[in-house]
Design a protein that fits this description.
mainly alpha
Length: 98
């Protein structure tokens, strides 16, 4: 890999630290899922969070808060592998291009 490709790869790679920070601060709204291109999970996180927030004060609040907590746990478990996959795909595209 030449220097130009190495610089391009470094500029396009997704950061694990950024991914975890997005999960920590915007995970309920799918921030980390959108970061790695997993739009479907991001939308599910938004719907889960809004449903849990809307249910506060109702008899179903515990159920929806539990569902949302499970969504967030699944999101963080999947996220490390997703960043690795995105980075591998970026590297393959750069190597094929030249």
């Amino acid at each position: 890999m030449n220097t130009a490709k190495a610089i391009l790869l470094a500029s396009k790679r997704k950061s694990q630290v950024a991914n975890y920070m997005l999960w920590l601060f915007l995970g309920g709204f799918g921030g980390n899922s959108f970061y790695v291109g997993n739009t479907g999970m991001g939308i599910i996180n938004i719907i889960g969070t809004l449903t849990a927030m809307a249910s506060i004060g109702t008899p179903n609040a515990g159920l929806w808060l539990g569902v949302n907590a499970c969504l967030l746990i699944v999101s963080i478990i999947m996220s490390h592998g997703q960043v690795d996959l995105v980075n591998r795909n970026i590297e393959e595209e750069i190597l094929k291009a030249g």
